[in-house]
Design brief:
- The chain contains ten helices and five strands.
- The chain is an alpha/beta fold and 240 residues long.
- α6 (123-138) links the parallel β2 and β3 (143-148).
- It starts with 8 loop residues before the first helix and ends with a helix.
């Protein structure tokens, strides 16, 4: 079959009568590459700018760009506000007793508040404060507070420390009072994180209770001791 793109007099006649399609022009690879690079370079400069830079460069854009900039600025502002709202806290903050109602009971709607009542003379309280400081950074959407217990409750006994209250919408959703409930003197960071997540105050990425292995070992040990005592008792009865 004859090549329709071949330069022959017959093909030219056929093209004139519309029998053959117009001859395809050979593509210039260099020209194609230039066009592609130009297209890639047509990224609007404002898409790489901060909000402050956009404000400064407003006079350099045409009317079409300004409309696009306004839309883009609104989008960036929404993203920034959402991020700020999510990362509102991020630290363990100290409050006094007279701030308790405003900061805890009357905190904004649907906000989780974790407050630790402590005395610096109680070693376990210092440990809890260390853990809560780290958790406050990890979960900035939750408000973490601490308060010297004497400023909130008079004559509060050391046996009840540490005391952790978890609030939401003015209601106590969870509480850990005393060393045992708070996790013991060897409390690990992950263990406290799990406790708070069980109440709902934080969304942890831990897949299971860090103390589960220890609890299983204790249960296993108790069962072994019970089995041993039972066997010993039966042996004594047989001997009689």
């Amino acid at each position: 079959m004859q090549d329709p793109n071949e330069d022959t007099e017959w093909n030219e006649i056929l093209r004139d009568f519309g029998i053959l399609p117009p001859k395809e022009e050979p593509k210039d690879e260099i020209e194609e590459m230039v066009l592609r690079l130009q297209k890639e370079a047509m990224v609007k400069p404002y898409e790489k700018m901060t909000l402050a830079q956009l404000k400064e460069a407003e006079d350099e854009f045409d009317e079409e760009d300004i409309k696009a900039i306004e839309t883009y600025r609104e989008k960036r502002l929404k993203e920034w506000k959402a991020l700020k709202k999510k990362q509102k806290f991020g630290e363990l903050r100290e409050i006094s007793g007279n701030q308790y109602v405003n900061e805890v009971t009357n905190a904004e709607k649907d906000l989780w508040v974790v407050i630790h009542l402590y005395r610096s003379s109680v070693p376990m309280c210092l440990l809890v404060n260390q853990h809560l400081s780290l958790l406050a950074r990890k979960f900035p959407e939750t408000k973490f507070l601490k308060a010297i217990v004497n400023s909130c409750i008079e004559h509060y006994h050391d046996n009840c420390l540490p005391t952790i209250f978890i609030y939401k919408n003015g209601q106590i959703e969870g509480k850990f009072i005393g060393i045992i409930e708070c996790g013991g003197i060897n409390l690990k960071l992950e263990e406290l994180e799990w406790k708070l997540s069980e109440v709902g105050a934080i969304q942890t990425d831990l897949e299971e209770n860090p103390k589960k292995g220890i609890a299983d070992m204790m249960v296993s040990s108790i069962r072994n001791i019970s089995t041993y005592d039972s066997d010993s008792s039966n042996s004594d009865n047989d001997a009689k």
